[in-house]
Amino acid sequence: MARNVEIKVRVDSLDALRERAAALAGAALELIEQDDVFYAVAKGRLKLRRLADGSAELIHYERPDGDGARLSDYERIAVGEAAEALHRVLARGLGLRSHVRKQRWLARVGRSRLHLDRVEGLGDFVEIEVVLADGESEADGREVAEGLLESLGLSAAERVPTAYADLPLLAV
User: Fold this and answer.
1) Gap between the Cα atoms of 35 and 57, Å rounded
2) Beta partners for 129?
3) What is the pTM of this model?
4) What is the tens place of the pLDDT at every residue in 141-162?
5) String of DSSP letters for 30-85
6) Of 10, 19, 95, 123, whose CA is between 20 and 30 Å from 104?
7) DSSP letter, residue 153
8) Residue 129 · residue 6 · CB < 8 Å
9) Kind and range of the H or E element at 172?
10) Cβ contacts of residue 126 below 8 Å, gap of 6+?
């Protein structure tokens, strides 16, 4: 099972951050359109992620809620063209929990992934995922994540304690 340390913060705007993230990555950001459907499960979170390019993956992860950097363990499998049929079966058998659509600008910084997310109905966020090697501690990942937040000038930003799927929608 793969593991990472994740930290998420709310930001006012992604515009100024895109340039800083690209500088940290030493490359242009990649825009990814994501449509995540979460299903009702007894343990962890299960989502079907469909991408604008037609690819899809089923992801199950467990991560405690909390304001700081949190350890997450996860499994992902590519589902390709079976995504729609899989969605129908999962929705029917498990029930729907929530639906999250977002634009994600991705920057890779070493073993970390910086996500600059514009989430429909929720606003703008920065999420950092630090992939842990076998035997590496959560504290090691937390240190890297906090360092990246500092490099982006976001050390004092409002921490988001849970998944996008669990946040209340903004009033329109």
Assistant:
1) 11
2) 6, 113
3) 0.89
4) 999 999 999 999 999 999 999 9
5) EEEEEEEEEE--SSSEEEEEEETTS-EEEEEEE----SS-EEEEEEEEE-GGGHHH
6) 95
7) T
8) yes
9) none
10) 8, 9, 11, 14, 17, 114, 115, 116, 117, 149, 152, 154, 157
